[in-house]
Amino acid sequence: MQITRYQAGTYDIAVIGLGHAGIEAALACARMGLRTIAFTINLDSVGNMPCNPAIGGTAKGHLVRELDALGGEMGKAADDCCIEYRMLNRGKGPAVYSLRGQIDRVKYRERMKATLEKTKNLYIVQAEVVELLTEEEKVTGVVTRTGATYGVKAAIICTGTYLEGSIIIGELSYESGPDGLFPSKGLSASLAKTGHTLRRFKTGTPPRINRSTVDFTNLEVQTGDEDIEPFSFSTKEKKENLAVCHLTYTNPTTHQIIRDNLHRSPLFSGNIKGIGPRYCPSIEDKVVRFADKDRHQLFVEPMGLDTDELYIQGFSSSMPEEVQLQMLHSVEGMEHAHVQRSAYAIEYDCVDPRELYPTLESKLISGLYGAGQFNGSSGYEEAAVQGFVAGVNAANKLLGREPFVLMREDGYIGTLIDDLTDKGTNEPYRMMTSRSEYRLINRQDNADQRLMGVGHDLGLVSDETYSEMLQKYALVEEEILRLEKTGARFDEDFFKAVEEKTGGNVHKGVKLADLLRRPGVTYDELAAVDPDRPTLPRDVTQEVEIAVKYEGYIKREREKVDKVKRLAKRILPADLDYMSMATLRLEARQKLAAAKPKTIGEASRISGVSPADISVLLLYTEQGKA
Amino acid sequence: MDRDTICAIASPEGRGAIGVIRISGKDAFFCLDRVFYAKSGKKAVERAPRDMVMGKIYHGDRLVDEGMCAVFFAPASYTGENSAEIYCHGGRVVTREILSALLESGCRLARGGEFTERAFLNGKMDLAAAEAVEELIDAANPVYVSTAAANLSGRFGRRIKAIRDELVDVATHYAACLDYADEGVEPPDPTVVEEKMLRAERELKKLRAGCLDGKIVREGAPVAIVGRTNSGKSTLLNYVLGYDRAIVTNIAGTTRDIIEESISLKNGILRFIDTAGFRETDDPVERIGIERSRESLSRAEMVLMLFDGSTAPSEEDKISAQAVENEMQNRPNLQVFKVINKQDKGVSFGYENFLPELEPLYISAETGDGVENLLEKLEESLKTGSDEADLVTNLRHSDVIIRTSDVLSATVADQRRMMTDDVIWSGVISACEILGEITGDEVKEDMIQRIFEQFCVGK
Fold first, then answer.
1. What ipTM did this prediction achieve?
2. Which of A23, A137, A209, B323 has the highest Cβ tally under 10 A?
3. Do the Cβ atoms of B113 and B11 come closer than 8 Å?
4. Of A289, A439, A615, the CB nearest to B422
């Protein structure tokens, strides 16, 4: 039956979905002064974490810090709701330090909902958007299931796994969003009508169990950090760890149960058509692909302080429910575990991100933006940063300002969006430190220095916070200078110890900076030979230590950035006929012809275009000059 | 892509019974038909590809030559374009005139290497192969040709790939460990990583040693002739070369300038360097000559230590022999031949005390006795050295090898200094990136692919 439509008002921007992408998009738009309407299928699920109750982790921690520097909300909210902090990869080098926090999931949702409600210019509505209205390839409005029609100039799609979502458990498959919520129906077809290529991706989640039914006797405890570093630059109060995680392992019995029931797994029977991520394999996947491993690690995470629900990382599955139970009960400590929510796989619609500009605006429809899983990514943090970038760009466009684009060399956000929009992805895309070329300069600890100026320019970082950041790095500079100039106080025992530890003689009068450059020598240790040291905050001394210790490597990476920038500027003629360049592999020819890169730099970032193909292009451009 | 039509003389200029002229490009047949008239009366497009046909070659109205011609249709040709080859009588005059005729018909003179460049651009061969072909053309001797051919078939590429492959595995291990910090991936064992980097370095060093050999193969192995004044160095050189390149006189110190001359043997090229000898002198001019002699000695691959058997050993013999002995100690691989000259005039005692561990070879540079035997020995030692190593005969490849080796050395040093994993990882990745310039692979993609193949990670 056709629903009667009615005019529900006009706004500047509509945000569809209020997960981690939608929240940042909506807040950015509203904070930049645009009248913003934001829709969610269920208002109690704003900022929901349907998978693990944690924020950050390797590379993702970088994203949260960068987003925080730009003026996003995720880092602050995470600090407000974090119950255990851990800095991963400590001791492996500052480039790969990554902060992860266990989050009280319910508290996080409430925190975010309250923030949205209090934000000026922002209006949130519980409604399902079923249609996008366009005129002459421009966004003009959105329509909800109940017929409300909103006139808007831009729309940001942040539909996560809801878009035509369907859940698969064993032989069973049914239409659903995550966590027992309704899926989004209809919008997908409306987007397809505008010419977008929609694809089907898959992800999955493990079971949740009740704490009181778990036997923790033999489970390893994992506690949080003693000296906690918060996510956000703005978090000044002292944080505490309020919870712990546990480790347990699968065993040969678990694996036998899985093997015996493989024929019932939709992944192997072919029931799942969506493309799942390699880095998010189900336990079935792991057992099949790594048959020689006799155990797999499981990580038991608390879902919050006011609940006994536990999340079992590493146990994603799409097996039938009764098989899941057998599997779970074979694991040490889980023999009598009571399952509160079963594991499931979920399939959803998403767009080919190569149909988007680096601003995350659609190449087909002006004013249409996408962020998060809709763009083919995976993960809360990946979603949040895209939501922010899409929101800022939608706002900039309506305000007549320049597009906001971060480059690969600017950090992980730039790398993520460049990978997605330039290379596309064949599976849900997860951020990894492996994906960055500039790990030593784009660290999580200096995200504030790298990006807060940009956030300040956007008007999303306050003058006060910005000047605090400048002050911090002024102190860093000053202290580095002091260490370079100041000789260490002579202390034979200390010098001997350093010689023993690092090899090479330590001479009387050695500068403090030279001692600090030696691997294994820390800033704190140097206090023994540095009597006139000023008292400095931890985040300052950390920056000092990294800057001095890694000076050479950082310099080398900066030179690499400069070289790439120079080469990248070389222009490719617009009329280059790539399809006739037989030396390029067919894939490269097609991709170049489709993408029409303007420069060598753009060409080199297209997936399927190899360095050898770039040599060919360089040869052509040189020929053209001759 | 249609390119303009180029032509060039493909046979070596000047000599030879047959001259070859090559044409390639979109108008190759149009131009050819204005110069070569087949006996059958068929135009180029009507003839069967690769068939050799007889015909007359005209420059305008004037008959230049009679010869043969073969046509190749795109893409089944060397360049991948329509192309043709004209075979005429050798000699500068004929080939030049035919070239002029082609230029007037609309061709353009090809730049050096342009045929191969087109073959590359048209996808007929990859970059490494194209570079190898260019060297094949430049190669002056048989050994060189076979090394160039080895590159062409990708032996070099395979070795580079194998080295890179192992390094990508190391990078992958770090990636799995660092990107999945909490998932129980055992971190790479520093000693194993170091060993793998060192092994890669050694492998590259072998290939880099090939770089040097490559130069020797192309330009000849330098052979320094050392001996006292009047020991017969110039006479020997002249005999070997077959003409008077060096001035042969009896006045001490005549050969002040270093004279270099190459001869081509079956196994390669020998480049003889005649030295001014070693002696005590106050003459500043002579001293320059002696300095140059030392320099020649230091860059020689082989040394002929020449003694005049007809007279007793002198102080100068002693100084010369000492200089050679010093060089041998510094460079264990240096090949030294102890040669007693003027054996036809008798052999004096005393020479057995110089370079005593070497078996002397007796010759007469004047009559030529024993010289043939000496050359055979030289040729034999030329053969070893270039057979084993894959010769890196190309600047780009050796540049890549050197840059990779540098990064690996620095990374090994970093690891020994106990630098953190992030730095070691970046070093290994850089090495893979540089090698990728030859293999054409992208390290990030490879690494991410392998993480999930080799490590069981992910929630």
1. 0.85
2. A23
3. no
4. A439
